[in-house]
Description:
The chain is mostly helical. 56% of the residues lie in helices and 5% in strands.
Amino acid sequence: MTNLEILSEDKILTLKNNKDQVLDCMLSSSDNSWLKDFFREENPFSKSKLMVKDFDLKIANDENLSTFDLDNAITLHENLHLTDSQACDERLWISLCLGKFYDYMQSRWNVKTRSNLSEHWLFPHGQKRGLYFNGISRLYWFAHITYDETLDDPYEITKFCFKDINIVLQMIYRGYSNSKNVRLALLKAIKVFVEDGGTYNRKILHEILKYVSFLGGAYILDSFTEKELFDKCYLKLIDLYIEEYPDQKIFKL
Length: 253
C-alpha cells in the first residue's frame, strides 16, 4: 500500500491560469518532469491520506484509443476505495492525470489535440460535468454509478453502458441520476429492452429520460421499488419503439 500523491489547490490553480505555458511544457517533454521546473520544486506532489495498492491502467497500442476504457474503469473502481466526497475532489483527478497516470493520459488524451488539456486533464466545466470529462475521473464515475453489488457480475450494467457511453452522459444531467435505485432501474430497462430485440436512437433515448423526469414530477421516485421503476421504463421503451418504428416486426413482444 502507498499514499497517493496529489497537488495542492494553489498549484492546480496556477496550472489552470497558465494553460498556454503548461501546454508548451507538455508538448516539449516526454514525461512529467517539466513539473519540477514549472514549480521549481524537486517534487511538487505531496502525499495524501489515501492509501492504495499499486496498479496501472492499460494503454491502447492501436488507433482505437478507447479500447481499454471499460477495463480501466473497472480497475480504477476496484482499486480506489473512495467516499463520494473524495471522488468529487478535482485535486485528486488532476493530480492522477499529471502524476501516476501521466503516460496513460498522454496516450489516451494527447495534448497535441490542444482542447484535450482543458477538457480532459483539467476541470473547465462545473464540477459534475467535469467529473465525466476528466480523463481519469470519468472512468471511475462511469463505473461507480453503474455498479450493482446485487448482480452476479456487479459490473454487468457498466459493460452495457460502455457500448454507448452517451446513455450515461445524457442521464447524469437529470436530478434523478443521484438516486441509485432510479438510475439502475432505468439502465437495466434499456439493457433488457435491447437484449429483447429493441433498438433506440437519440430521440427514443431523450424521450425515456424525459419520461423518468415526468414520473419524478408526478410521484416520489424513491417510493417505487427498482422493479416497479424497471417495469414502467421497459413498457415505455416499447411504446416509444413502436411509435418510432411502426413497421418493425423483430421485437420479441
